Amino acid sequence: MKDNLGHNWTMTIEGWKCENCGAELTLPQEY
pLDDT tens, 1-28? Predict the structure, then answer.
């Protein structure tokens, strides 16, 4: 999932991870 900041988020078991920079994103489960 790409956002408007250029991150390419991928859902992993731990949560969202950006494939471009390796950042991690924690979101509510219902998101």
Answer: 898 988 899 998 888 999 989 898 876 5
The CB density around residue 25, as the number of other CB atoms within 10 Å, is 14
Q: What is the DSSP letter of 26?
A: -
Strand partners, 6: none
C-alpha dist (Å) from residue 14 to 4, 10, 28, 30 = 22, 11, 12, 15
pTM of the complete model: 0.57
Q: Are 18 and 11 in contact (CB under 8 A)?
A: no
For residue 23, the SS3 value is coil
